[in-house]
Specification:
Layout (H helix, E strand, L loop, with lengths): L1 E4 L2 H6 L1 E2 L3 H13 L8 H16 L2 H10 L21 H9 L3 H13 L15 H17 L3 H22 L1 H4 L8 E3 L3 E5 L6 E2 L6 E5 L6 E3 L7 E5 L11 H10 L1 H9 L6 H8 L3 H13 L3 E6 L2 E6 L1 H8 L5
Parallel strand pairs: 1-5, 2-6, 6-8
Antiparallel strand pairs: 1-4, 3-4, 7-8, 9-10
Helix pairs in contact: 2-3, 2-7, 3-4, 5-7, 8-12, 10-11, 11-13, 12-13
Protein name: ArsR family transcriptional regulator
InterPro entries: ArsR-like_HTH, HTH_ArsR_DNA-bd_dom, Metal_resp_trans_reg, WH-like_DNA-bd_sf, WH_DNA-bd_sf
Keywords: DNA-binding, Transcription, Transcription regulation
Length: 327
Amino acid sequence: MVMLRLDSLALSRSRFALSPFAETLAAIVQLARPAAESWNPEWHARHRGEFHARLRADPYARGLVALISATKWLPDHLVVPPGGGMDTTIESELAEVAGVPDEVVAEGVRMSLAHSWEERQLDWFTGRDHGARAAELFRVAWDTHVAADWPARRAVLLRDVTHRAGLLAAHGWPRALHLMNRRSAWVGSDAIRFSDRPGPDRTVGADGMLFVPISAHRSSWLCQAPGRPYALVYPARGTGAREAAPDGDRALARLIGTGRAVILRHLDTPATTSELAALLDQSVGTVGGHLAVLRDAGLVDRTRLGRRVLYHRTPLGDHLADGRPGA
């Protein structure tokens, strides 16, 4: 059982961050598998063929992807904590990966191979500049499979951070971190159980740690690098996948209109107008108009959190969206 131990100072300085690189890593693992619990099943079906065609043409990329999709220990050069907080860019993260020395990459790959649940060979791991080669693989994966969806993905991630920040303000870190992944849990007053697998405990330094949401359903890992805070990557609440509407959704759409019904459904987690617009691929003006009607009807309300205005469902909106009797 791996524990992350934090004192009160480390806890007070912990914060959230975004990582386009971590989002790309999760996307690569999803596309490598035949039945991924992906950001969006339609996205998975649309991109998987091109992704595997590229792997067939590049033995190095094929070997690295096969390793990271079947191991309990990701190579160290692929799990560098994001350095830009909520504004971390893919360019800055790719530059860091490209700059990792070959000997550090080699040690991390060997560790990853030792923890693989499938027998692997390292015949693909030849030559030099392994950090730069990995960065190029991730650059192509980002450009081809992630970048176009990043605004919608980012909206999902921001909604999760907003939700947990609200819990943090009201109830403290234990409630904010509750069920962050399948294995994590707050233990006592000063520790987070990160994994139920055997492993050494980690002590979080005075700078605290980072909590980094991604859109994958189940993916979770720990990022670490010398001189940097630990970063816990975890699955955000909600994936943005568009599913076929059940009978209750169709009835709700007939009652209040399709656009407003979709927005009401998505407000199971509070969100800003711009976040909803990115998530639903609509203009801010269209979403704002729907929100105004829903607010006038008493189905949603709004709350200011710092510089952001969050919309959330009222109890009546909850009843209507959930199809509960007596709404």
